[in-house]
Amino acid sequence: MDYQILVNKDNSLDKDYIPKNLVLSNSIYKDGIMVDKLVLEAFNKMKEEAKKYNYEIDIMSGYRSYSYQDKLFNNLVNEKGFNYAYNYIAKAGTSEHQTGLAIDFVIYKDDKCYIEHDVEGLNETLWIHQNAHKYGFIVRYPKDKEEITKYNYEPWHLRYVGNIANSLYNNDLTLEEYKKRIQ
Description:
Elements: E1 22-24, E2 34-36, H1 37-51, E3 56-61, H2 66-80, H3 82-88, E4 102-109, E5 112-114, H4 123-131, E6 137-139, H5 146-149, E7 157-160, H6 165-170, H7 175-182
Antiparallel strand pairs: 1-2, 3-4, 4-5, 4-7, 6-7
Helix pairs in contact: 2-3
């Protein structure tokens, strides 16, 4: 598996692409969430470390098939229009979730479940953003990098990139910027 694979609006996956190493995440948020085996191992290590600070995190979204992503995109288009959908959700074939390497995290705090924009500003999210690289993850769509990633800021979306995560974090690089540098 190429853990540095670049999937975005300009680099798509084949309609039939399904990662080989998918495993169940055992998420308490929702049954049936699958991710790459190495991603789950890394996330579980981060989750255990977070517990030392009384932070409760979990996976709310992982692998998505081409057809499932197509449904999500079209539902958002119907609900909020194409331009909104295009900035907030990937079209089928251009979603990192199809690789099994992307996760959206959820935070449990004060008997509540925080998802998506609700996680913004929470101490748990700040901790994740400052520590995810130690486990091979990056915040894939960071604030102030929208022109590069072509997506709005998503504080809940992590992408597993493996051993390059520290370099990306320390140099404030997106995956697009990293790929451009090494070409």
